[in-house]
Structure formats: structure tokens, C-alpha cells
From TrEMBL:
The keyword Cytoplasm belongs to this UniProt entry's keyword annotation: yes
Pfam families noted in UniProt: DUF1899, Trimer_CC, WD40
Protein's recorded name: Coronin
Similarity comment text for this entry: Belongs to the WD repeat coronin family.
Gene Ontology annotations of biological process type: actin filament organization; cell migration
Organism: Nannospalax galili
InterPro entries according to UniProt: Coronin, DUF1899, Trimer_CC, WD40/YVTN_repeat-like_dom_sf, WD40_repeat_CS, WD40_repeat_dom_sf, WD40_rpt
Length: 389
């Protein structure tokens, strides 16, 4: 009989640690809008979340250090005339944030150091080009002042924020239906999109050409999300024909069959994937879920390895993901999420325990196993004595 060996991984013991109450952001009114975005964006300076606002769309920006109860009269960024659907911090300037809204515009804002003291109504740039609501905004990862937006008019626009002009348009001939997700590759040379027509496309934006395309990566009718991961692969989340949630890994050069396809559960929330290229870990956060699953991606079969799951009692309305430069690496932190509750934002640190801690835990586990075996032997002897009498 062959003995199964547990796969060796540095991240097998990663665990999530929610922040204490005084490190959370209390009494914030998270948006009730139905839309599959994270509703939260964070960087090493600020935390921003889309909030409920009367008479238009608004979002809240707070310095990371300003935890605790948030004043109900705190100043908001409130220049949109309809609800905000997505926000994204610029990766090259921690004071600049972009927002997309139901009023068909994209606005770029500059937040002063220390946060807002008065409501911010004037954007530094207003980008107008969409004819329907804008649900996705994403900054180029390597080029400064380049911003992508995707709207419900089935159009993707790439903007030069410096001039306020659209430098590239991918029209309805590329995406004939609603665009569910857009993701830049790490070098910004390609974009990966998922669409309501049940196709995932990899597009070279400079030429406007589709490099690769996969029809029905998941058989279900619910939204699919796709992100680039390491070594020319993409990861998709979606639903099976029986409405079971799935995660799949694909080689962009051979999209006929997935490298790995795993079924997770039967929950209805759309899974939002967050990929960490430094550790090759992908985190899956479902809106309405109370858990975060994480998987490790490797270059050898079976390619996608389930690691563990962080669970809590409260369900999440949205999720923000901190860039690696904002983490406390001296505390072995490899990722940090900002989980949106109905009236609260809660940081969750993902930590790799130090080697001596892992060794101590494994030693305790071996000791417990030896104790269980000894108790089992005693129980067997007691049963034999009872039968003999």
C-alpha cells in the first residue's frame, strides 16, 4: 500500500488574521449598488470605498492610519451625478485615484496628503467617451498616465490621462455584449477580457487584435472573471451548468482544454480573483461569502493546488487588495485584504508563520498523534479485559 505524501510548499500554513476592533474602519455606509466590483481600493497611503450617497455618486477616502469610528460628516469625493461603480488607485502616484460611474464618465482625482478636509467635487480630469455606465477602470501597470475603462456600451477605451484623450478604442465589434472583467498583463502588453457572450479574449491593445479566444470556459450562464497569472497562463472563475462555482487555469497558447478545473461549492456569489505574482498565490473572494480561498499555482501538474481557506462569521460586500509595497513584511505578511461589511471595513492580514513556529506546531501535532495512539491501545486492552470477564 503506497503512503500518500503531502506536497511540500512554503505557503501550506498561510493563515488569515483579522484586525482588532480599533484597527477597523467603523460606521461606514457601504454602497448597496448591485455590481460585481470590489467596491474598495487601497494603497500604502489611503483606503477608499464606494459608499451610499444621496443625490449622486460618492466614495470615501481615508488615510490608512485613520482607523476607528468614522465621523458621519466626513468629507467625500462627490463629483459624479450617479452612483460610482468602480475605483482604482494609480500605481505610480499614491495620491491619484480614478472612478467610473453610472453617469457614463470616468473621473481622475488627486487626494491631498493627510486626506480630505472638505468635500472634493472638482476632478483633475473628466474623461467622456462612453454612452452607457462605466463599470470597470484599470490603470496600466507600467506606463504612467494610461488608464483603461470599460462600459456597458460594450466599448473599451484606453485614455491618455495627461491630455484627456482616448488613444485607443475597442468597439462593439470586439465585444458584442456586456464586459464582465478586464485585466492587464504584468508588462501591460496584453489585456484579458471576459464577456457576456461566454467568451474570454486575450487582446493586444496596440493593434486592436484578438491574440487568443476561448468559447465557454465555464458552462454556466453566470458571470465569468479572468485574470493573468504567471508564465503565460490565465485563471478564470465561473459556474458549471449545475450552478456550481468553478476555478480553472488555462495556457494562453493552448486554450482547448484547461490545465486544471476545480469545482468549489454551490454558492451564488461571483468569485473575484486576486493574484500575487511574487508568491504565485491566487486568492478567491466571493461577494456575499464569508470566506477567502487561496490556491498556489505551480509549473508542474496539477498546476493549481488548494492551500487553505480563511473563514469568518460576517459576509463580505466587497474586497480591497493592498499592493505588496504596503505590507509589513517584517511580520511575515504576504497579502492584506480590506473586507467590506455593511457598516465596517476590516483589514485581514495573510501571514506565513516563521519556520520555528511551523516546527513547533508540527512537533505538537506529532505529540498529539502519539497520545491518541496510546489512548487507543489502552482502550483496546480494556475491551479485551471486559470480554475475558
Amino acid at each position: 500500500m503506497s503512503r500518500q505524501v503531502v506536497r511540500s510548499s512554503k505557503f501550506r500554513h498561510v493563515f488569515g488574521q483579522p484586525a482588532k476592533a480599533d484597527q477597523c474602519y467603523e460606521d461606514v455606509r457601504v454602497s448597496q449598488t448591485t455590481w460585481d466590483s470590489g467596491f474598495c481600493a487601497v494603497n500604502p497611503k489611503f483606503m477608499a470605498l464606494i459608499c451610499e450617497a444621496s443625490g449622486g455618486g460618492a466614495f470615501l477616502v481615508l488615510p490608512l492610519s485613520k482607523t476607528g469610528r468614522v465621523d458621519k460628516n466626513v468629507p467625500l469625493v462627490c463629483g459624479h451625478t450617479a452612483p460610482v461603480l468602480d475605483i482604482a488607485w494609480c500605481p505610480h502616484n499614491d495620491n491619484v485615484i480614478a472612478s467610473g460611474s453610472e453617469d457614463c464618465t470616468v473621473m481622475v482625482w488627486e487626494i491631498p496628503d493627510g486626506g480630505l478636509t472638505l468635500p472634493l467635487r472638482e476632478a483633475i480630469v473628466t474623461l467622456e467617451g462612453h454612452t452607457k455606465r462605466v463599470g470597470i477602470v484599470a490603470w496600466h501597470p507600467t506606463a504612467q498616465n494610461v488608464l483603461l475603462s470599460a462600459g456597458c456600451d460594450n466599448v473599451i477605451l484606453v485614455w491618455d490621462v495627461g491630455t484627456g484623450a482616448a488613444v485607443l478604442t475597442l468597439g462593439p465589434d470586439v465585444h458584442p455584449d456586456t464586459i464582465y472583467s478586464v485585466d492587464w498583463s504584468r508588462d501591460g502588453a496584453l489585456i484579458c477580457t471576459s464577456c457576456r457572450d461566454k467568451r474570454v479574449r486575450i487582446i493586444e491593445p496596440r493593434k486592436g487584435t484578438i491574440v487568443a479566444e476561448k468559447d465557454r470556459p465555464h458552462e454556466g450562464t453566470r458571470p465569468v472573471h479572468a485574470v493573468f497569472v504567471s508564465e503565460g497562463k490565465i485563471l478564470t472563475t465561473g459556474f458549471s451548468r449545475m450552478s456550481e462555482r468553478q476555478v480553472a487555469l488555462w495556457d494562453t497558447k493552448h486554450l482547448e482544454e484547461p490545465l486544471s478545473l476545480q469545482e468549489l461549492d454551490t454558492s451564488s456569489g461571483v468569485l473575484l480573483p486576486f493574484f500575487d505574482p511574487d508568491t504565485n498565490i491566487v486568492y478567491l473572494c466571493g461577494k456575499g461569502d464569508s470566506s477567502i480561498r487561496y490556491f498556489e499555482i505551480t509549473s508542474e501538474a496539477p498546476f493549481l493546488h488548494y492551500l487553505s481557506m480563511f473563514s469568518s462569521k460576517e459576509s463580505q460586500r466587497g474586497m480591497g487588495y493592498m499592493p505588496k509595497r504596503g505590507l509589513e513584511v517584517n511580520k511575515c505578511e504576504i497579502a492584506r485584504f480590506y473586507k467590506l461589511h455593511e457598516r465596517k471595513c476590516e483589514p485581514i492580514a495573510m501571514t506565513v508563520p516563521r519556520k520555528d513556529t511551523v516546527s513547533r506546531l508540527e512537533e505538537e501535532m506529532r505529540s498529539l498523534q502519539a497520545t491518541v495512539q496510546e489512548l487507543q491501545k489502552r482502550l483496546d486492552r480494556l475491551e479485551e479485559t471486559t470480554q475475558a470477564k
